[in-house]
Design a protein that fits this description.
By secondary structure, this protein is α/β, with parallel strands linked by helices. The protein contains five helices and five strands; from the N terminus they run βαβααβαβαβ.
């Protein structure tokens, strides 16, 4: 048994019955509580629907203070990060499973945050991830792709950033 896979998911290690296909590996969407979360969720939902796979929403949270307890995946903080994505998932009609990733505290090198994020995805059995091209420092698509290439997986898709639109002020005639 792999030490990275949680013991509460025996279906991930199960051998399929004769004539049946293997269980689908989830597609992960990395959400960092930014406007770029919308294209990430849309791309991940398209991938998951096309593959017939479940969707894993990884909420990126700030580093934990020393001796603090990590937030549960169904906690208020995680739901606040996932809040921007949930209406899009309801429209598509696809289910999801939440996961939590706390950014590492301090300086750990350029690829440290990306490697830790990959650990979370691999622990949930993900074979594909969708990350924003303009994500937070150390968690943008290029850095995560580089860390995944060094590690040997999972496959990382880059979601485009939200297009820029100038703010327009309404003019009132007085």
């Amino acid at each position: 048994m792999s030490s990275l896979r949680p013991p509460c998911s025996p279906a991930a290690n199960a051998v399929p019955a004769p004539g049946r296909s293997r269980p689908r590996r989830p597609v992960a969407a990395v959400l960092a509580d930014r406007l770029d979360d919308v294209p990430v969720v849309e791309a991940a939902a398209r991938l998951a629907a096309a593959r017939g796979a479940p969707l894993l929403l990884i909420a990126v949270l700030p580093p934990l203070p020393p001796r603090a307890v990590a937030a549960p995946p169904d906690g208020v903080t995680v739901r606040a990060v996932l809040g921007r994505a949930l209406p899009h998932l309801a429209r598509v009609g696809i289910g999801y499973e939440p996961a939590v990733y706390h950014r590492p505290a301090g300086r750990g090198g350029r690829l440290c945050a990306a490697r830790s994020l990959l650990d979370v995805a691999i622990a949930h059995g993900c074979s594909r991830m969708v990350v924003s091209r303009s994500g937070p420092a150390g968690l943008d698509a290029n850095t995560v792709m580089e860390a995944a290439a060094i590690r040997g997986g999972p496959f990382v898709h880059a979601a485009p950033p939200v297009p820029w639109a100038p703010l327009t002020a309404t003019r009132s005639s007085v």
